[in-house]
């Protein structure tokens, strides 16, 4: 099948590469010249495990092509996937300008039947907007062509994106157009051979399904974060509580880890966008408002613990930070808690020596305006000359540190762990003061902000 993808970011590039791997002929189009040049010259603009190999193999086989030529892009695919960004606007609503641009570009150039497949995460009703945009452009051209608009939300996780795309839990297809359903089934059938996981529904329900999924996951995280803060005050251990509730199959173990808040390109903006949609229709989602507020609070709890330990004036203090990306396996820094924490520490006069296995370049782009941040080439190098260590991202390489080295290198052998990587008793046996989330805290280390 001939397929075009609008947008060659995390979703577009993974989608394009995986569809090409199944034998389709895919053209990935992007307005970002630099990104396309990087891809054309064999580079991969993002960090995603396994993606470089997949892209190179399919590009070499002639099934995957990258272009900034929109005529070529629209002319190529019967299926036109839209995988452009939908960033939050100032009021929290999803900014649909890139989606509408893509729809217009398709309408302006199409000469035969197209299925416009919306893979970007978009508010309910955006499919209608895309449909009317294409229709209006066709009318202004004075041509009559059949087309369908399908909602096909993407559920991949950065860091495991290829696996998720290749073995989806479900594929949601929102349309009432039979011809489009047939084509979507044909495209996805190689990915769901062992069990039919294609859920066909109306377009609005498909659009809402994506927001509902992310809202539910964000809710679990904020729920656990709030309980963790309570556990600290009550002298309970959230890790034991997590196991105690997660073993109930009605609850399950996934997404029950407390930490220093969720970030990334999806949860924060999707929660905001769904809240915005709910307010617009006079049905404000109270639970999601709390989910967001708890998350904002949680990103600051590590800073509170640092202040409780070292005082409000952090001038002259230097903190090592392990992990910058919003989660392991990616270089994505969008809404990463590390950004909030670094800014808050530097505002109080501290400096930060940061290390992340892959996200340094993205962090530099995001923190260019912040004075006092330097980037180390490794975890051990990061702690040199520092007062204490703060852990923000749970990369595997941070899981078994050399505590003796930390004890002797840090000016104060103190760890603030935003991801609960270690057994508190074990760390303390190593002679290191350990502040974590929702587990026993050293005296004075409790969540102190009121
Ligand atoms: N990143 C994720 O984990 C993830 C998961 C599921 C869904 N999504 C959703 O998928 C969408 C894309 O997310 P992403 O993370 O891939 O974004 P991204 O920022 O990595 O990529 C978007 C790309 O679209 C390009 N673009 C913008 N306007 C364009 C246009 N008119 N024509 C062609 N290209 C254009 C940009 O240059 C950019 O390269 C968003 O709606 C997001 O919410 C993301």
Task: Write a structural description.
The chain is 44% helix and 13% strand. The protein is of the alpha/beta class. The strands form three sheets. The protein has a six-stranded parallel beta sheet with strand order 3-2-1-4-5-6, with helices on both faces. The protein has a six-stranded parallel beta sheet with strand order 11-10-9-12-13-14. Helix 8 (178-188) links the parallel strand 7 (171-174) and strand 8. Helix 9 runs parallel beside helix 12 (286-310) and helix 12 crosses helix 13. Residues 444-450 have low confidence and may be disordered. Nicotinamide-adenine-dinucleotide binds at residues 6-12, 29-32, 35, 83-86, 98, 101-102, 120-121, 154, 156, 158, 265-266.
Oligomer: single chain
DSSP summary: helix tally: 17
Fraction in beta strands: 5-15%
Uncertain ranges: 444-450
Could you give a short account of the major beta sheet? 6 strands, parallel
Provide the gyration radius in Å.
Answer: 24 Å
Strand order of the largest sheet: 3-2-1-4-5-6
- Give the integer mean of the pLDDT values: 96
Query: Hetero groups bound?
Result: nicotinamide-adenine-dinucleotide
**Structural shape:** elongated
Terminal-residue CA separation: 58 Å
Helix content: 40-55%
Tally of extended strands?
A: 14
**Structural class by SSE content:** alpha/beta
List keywords for this structure.
450 residues; alpha/beta; six-stranded parallel beta sheet; 44% helix; disordered C terminus; binds nicotinamide-adenine-dinucleotide
């Amino acid at each position: 099948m001939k397929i075009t993808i609008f947008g060659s970011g995390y979703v577009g590039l993974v989608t394009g590469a995986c569809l090409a791997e199944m034998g389709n002929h895919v053209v990935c189009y992007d307005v970002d010249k630099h990104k396309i040049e990087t891809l054309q010259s064999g580079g991969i603009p993002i960090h995603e495990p396994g993606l470089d190999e997949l892209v190179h193999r399919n590009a070499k086989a002639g099934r995957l092509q990258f272009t900034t030529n929109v005529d070529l892009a629209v002319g190529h695919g019967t299926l036109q996937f839209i995988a452009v960004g939908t960033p939050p606007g100032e009021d929290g609503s999803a900014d649909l300008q890139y989606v509408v641009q893509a729809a217009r570009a398709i309408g302006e150039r199409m000469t035969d039947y197209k299925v416009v497949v919306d893979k970007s995460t978009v508010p309910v009703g955006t499919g209608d907007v895309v449909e009317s945009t294409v229709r209006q452009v066709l009318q202004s051209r004075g041509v009559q062509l059949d087309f369908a608009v399908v909602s096909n939300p993407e559920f991949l996780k950065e860091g495991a994106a290829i696996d998720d795309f290749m073995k989806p839990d479900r594929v949601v297809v929102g349309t009432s157009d039979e011809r489009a359903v047939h084509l979507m089934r044909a495209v996805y059938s190689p990915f769901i051979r062992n069990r039919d996981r294609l859920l066909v529904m109306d377009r609005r329900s498909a659009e809402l399904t994506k927001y509902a999924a992310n809202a539910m996951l964000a809710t679990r995280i904020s729920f656990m974060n709030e309980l963790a803060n309570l556990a600290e005050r009550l002298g309970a251990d959230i890790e034991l509580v997590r196991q105690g509730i997660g073993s109930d199959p009605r609850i399950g173990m996934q997404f029950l880890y407390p930490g220093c808040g969720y970030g990334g390109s999806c949860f924060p903006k999707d929660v905001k966008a769904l809240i915005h949609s709910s307010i617009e229709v006079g049905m404000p989602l109270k639970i999601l408002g709390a989910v967001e507020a708890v998350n904002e609070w949680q990103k600051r709890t590590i800073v509170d613990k640092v202040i409780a330990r070292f005082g409000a004036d952090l001038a002259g203090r230097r903190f090592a930070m392990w992990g910058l990306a919003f989660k392991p396996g990616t270089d994505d820094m969008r809404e990463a808690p590390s950004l909030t924490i670094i800014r808050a520490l530097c505002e109080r006069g501290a400096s930060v020596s940061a290390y992340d296995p892959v996200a340094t370049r993205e962090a530099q782009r995001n923190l260019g305006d912040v004075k006092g941040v330097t980037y180390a080439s490794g975890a051990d190098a990061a702690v040199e000359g520092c007062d204490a260590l703060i852990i923000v991202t749970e990369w595997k390489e941070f899981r078994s540190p050399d505590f003796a080295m930390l004890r002797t290198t840090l000016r104060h052998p103190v760890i603030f762990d935003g991801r609960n990587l270690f057994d508190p008793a074990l760390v303390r046996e190593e002679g290191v003061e350990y502040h974590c989330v929702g587990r026993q805290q050293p005296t004075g280390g409790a969540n102190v902000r009121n």
